[in-house]
Amino acid sequence: MGFFYNLEAVFKPSSVAVVGASPSFGKWGQLIMSNIVAGRFPGPVYPVNPGQEKIFGLKAYRSVTEIPGKVDLVFVATPARTVLSLMEECGDKGVKGVVLITSGFSETDNHGKKMELEVAETCRRRGIALIGPNTMGIIAPYADLFATGTHSRPGRGNVAFLSQSGNLGNQLIHWASQHGIGVSLFVGTGNEALISCTDLLEYLEKDSNSDIIILYLEGVEEGRRFLDVAARVNLKKPVIILKGGRTDAGRLAAQSHTGSMSGRDEIFRAVCRQAGLLNVRVPTELLDLSAGFSCLPFPRGNRVGIVTLGGGWGVVTSDECNERGLIVPPLPQEIVDAVGRHLPPYWSKGNPVDLVGTRDPKAPIAAVEELLRWDGVDAVISLGIIGRLEIVRLLVDSTRAADPEISEDFLKKVEEFSERYERDYVSSMVDLMERYEKPILGVTLAQTREGTVRTVQGNRYSGVFYQTPENAVNVLARMVEYQRRVGSLRTL
Amino acid sequence: MGFFYNLEAVFKPSSVAVVGASPSFGKWGQLIMSNIVAGRFPGPVYPVNPGQEKIFGLKAYRSVTEIPGKVDLVFVATPARTVLSLMEECGDKGVKGVVLITSGFSETDNHGKKMELEVAETCRRRGIALIGPNTMGIIAPYADLFATGTHSRPGRGNVAFLSQSGNLGNQLIHWASQHGIGVSLFVGTGNEALISCTDLLEYLEKDSNSDIIILYLEGVEEGRRFLDVAARVNLKKPVIILKGGRTDAGRLAAQSHTGSMSGRDEIFRAVCRQAGLLNVRVPTELLDLSAGFSCLPFPRGNRVGIVTLGGGWGVVTSDECNERGLIVPPLPQEIVDAVGRHLPPYWSKGNPVDLVGTRDPKAPIAAVEELLRWDGVDAVISLGIIGRLEIVRLLVDSTRAADPEISEDFLKKVEEFSERYERDYVSSMVDLMERYEKPILGVTLAQTREGTVRTVQGNRYSGVFYQTPENAVNVLARMVEYQRRVGSLRTL
Fold first, then answer.
1. In this predicted complex, what is the ipTM?
2. Among A88, A150, A207, B68, whose Cα sits 20 to 30 Å from the Cα of A274?
3. Local confidence band at B234 (pLDDT 50, 70, 90 cut-offs)
4. Neighbours of B62 (CB within 10 A)
């Protein structure tokens, strides 16, 4: 049903209005309005509030119909009882879409449910694409439109997020922006009185900015249609789902939250598996997967080469690989020889390749390349080059404190060298991925100031550096799983 | 065998020497030396290096025996071939312990193995407690002794870390210091030529600073003795183990790393379970558990109250609880009434308690207290109060950018209020834990600048705030598991 509405105009509006806009710090009408303005939406932004002359220095209008120019998209933060007549006004004005922040509808009581049905019916009649009610807003980076209560502003990218829970969605987006994960669209779908997740999936199927789709679901109305659409989209663009309300306790919580009755989890998971869709268990996994799926080439198989800065880490990573169905193949003599040319003679001579603290700055990159070049591995996990800068900084501080003879200039150079080395390492990894079309998953030695994703201008892939080996292994295992599921479905 | 040696003098030395001390940035002798000095070890620090007059402004000695004062502990970073005669010298000097950083021993080849046996035998004969060889060093915060290659300096606390892998140990300690987890002792045990993890466990059993013991193991020589000791210690102080080399791939990696042959994982786990010991799967779990186990009262049962800032999160957390054997009990009418007094009428009226965006600053604290007061729950998980400050800061920045009329003074006050509120909230949680002797596990709304643990001066417990619900639930589930295992063993 999505295509009956002009969702393109909703998510790439040329002008927006905020009904209930307010200068009062922390109110919904102020949250949305200030986010849109501070986020530099390029088109006109019309505050609507009969009680104000100006808001943020912009002329405030008494009603939507009073606005002189055309209005594509209207955000609404006024009480539930005002909404029905407002929708008629929006219809008169030729508005394409409404994002209805207002709560107090079907999630509250029967009266709210009745109002919600009427609002939806009015929008349907007037051809208005209604998002919500009870939504936390939307973010459309390609339109420079940031319109959620939480003012995170992720960069442009190819991951679309749809969330039936506002607060979970906001948290995901906040994490995404902190970790450098580029976003094509975020929609808090709220009560889905009119436009559902399924409609949005159909929109995203054709949206050229979106390559990966992340869903947080609590319940789906038209289950059959949802699965058909999701399965179809998933063949082209990975659809990754976190389903809340898997257990009795969660289901009970979901019921009081969105009023949705979610079905039994085992059935949902079985159906998803059949349809080739990936299910995840926790929100952070959605983030990890969106980084890997959106920034790396897909592996053609499950064989992993590991390059590590220290033995213990290689052990832990090998264990994780083994437990997740990934193979850590032994190296044939020719590869041992090839890798060995770059390392001290006492290196591990196996997979994981332990760099044994070599000081040759080229060795870590050469070791990764030798593995990628070999047709015995489909992916490489690189442990601990990125993040060393943080450790170097600690050491520089100590040396400054301990050694009165050390030259400040030398210490500055050490830090600069480490910074440059990490930057160059990221570039090398991206280059290697382009060259060999195999993914490299990095793991940081220490938490870095940058996030998980590091882009390199002008490249198709980006560097991805997780904080732990288990996260990297999980993402790789899921990429393999996706390839297998979709591969076997595609050949049907 | 640990008590034959004076480990007390090793971990609380009054003077230390560094053999192979060097001014050359990045060499082991510089790393250790600069860390000890910059970490403000209070006793004398003697650099030993025949090629230098002074190091870091301190007089350098040609040998250990040349040092005028007494020397409790010696760090050694000179090549393997120099070590044997050096141990005799240390014996002559009356040194209590040696931390042998040097590698090139049993982890390398048979020749190295032979040297290692000789070194160990010499130390045994001379009564020197030998840590290593092939260790990344030790950290003893209560002695202000920081002597690892990675210069993380965690604060004093009650968690002891023993690690058979240096790099994993260093990473754990780095994380611990970033997350505010207080440490009593860290020992990289290296090849364990003389002092083993088991000896150190016996030492920690009596160490009054250590309440929780974290082990990263790859292999244990005297398996029976280790298990007997670990099981005994665990009844008094939780012993939490990560065993590397669980799978074939990991075992192979471990073998080339420390030369240890680790046994079959299923057997190890079964034996641990019988002994009441907790096993974890990944390094970050060690961190999570050390925060919770060291800072919170233990729950007396598995019933959880959840207080959440948003519905979706309550759902996800309930699911996790259910899947981990924790019960999220429904609230009886009296508790619904008690909680309801602090919330708007449209609140969820169940467990999870959804705060439904109430603006009353006292409500989140009151809701937690009403649940703790009720004898139907043994613990509370509080979702999303801490971390709101980060979101407020984003909003303040936006408002400053969007609203030309806003007063800077007002925005400053908003930020200050949020800061104070978080501080007060932490204090309240700590107070409530002292009052009700039940744990409160927090989850942050957004990554904060502070770490997981927030101490409140003069209190027995500390605030613990994880980044995700699943981490909080896992820790709580493990605390319940520990109580049960140890409880049933204690009554035997």
1. 0.88
2. A207
3. very high
4. 12
